[in-house]
Amino acid sequence: MTDALKQISLIMMLRKHGINNTRVLRAMELVSREAFVDEAFVDQAYDDTALPIACGQTISQPYIVAYMTEKLELEPDHNVLEIGTGSGYQAAILSNLCDQVCTIERYNELQKKATKAIENLGIKNVTTVIGDGWLGWPPKAPYDRIIITAAAPEPPQALLDQLKIGGRMILPLGETRETQFLVQIDKTEAGLEQKELLPVRFVPLVKGRVNPRKKNED
Ligand code: SAH
Asked: In 31-163, where does DSSP find H-type helix?
């Protein structure tokens, strides 16, 4: 099968599994996942599975990327924060659907690779930063939407603080891989409304920056 055909069958699979927002499907069609996958896995770039990337991390499964994106209900003027840049694929998808994306990664190596992949696609509205996602990114706050692509035991308080009233956060919550649930949190005048969406498996949202002097970590 050619890459174009693989891309089309991926979109058909997403539709079949209930992704029906046409803007989201269009974004999934526009961004080739191949550009974000390690060379060793390019032949699996359009499979609906998570794949290994550098630093022991993973690029998420396309269905989950599309599902989380759809749940964000993005508007073209939205300012969005992503925690866990990883390959940069999710950030590239988001960039097609909103005004600005800021994405935080704790590994230098991943941030560098993701920045290059995003630049190579000519995407101009994504800012990639190195830092600890638990702390969010105050310089660009407040955010209309926040998406976390690593699992936390509880929603990081700094991120709840950096979310606008009327804003939404989508994140995997859970102590272990076996008990994670994707959760939607809406911030209203009256407080936070939390809703469980579906069981998922993400790598953990680790506390703190990577120490660049430690070998094997970065
Ligand atoms: N969104 C990514 C998938 C990310 S996997 C994609 O589309 O490819 C989760 C990522 O979160 C990993 O790269 C991991 O290094 C990063 N991460 C984990 N804890 C973090 C933290 N506290 N701050 C920033 N990034 C973190």
From this structure: 62-72, 89-95, 108-120, 157-162
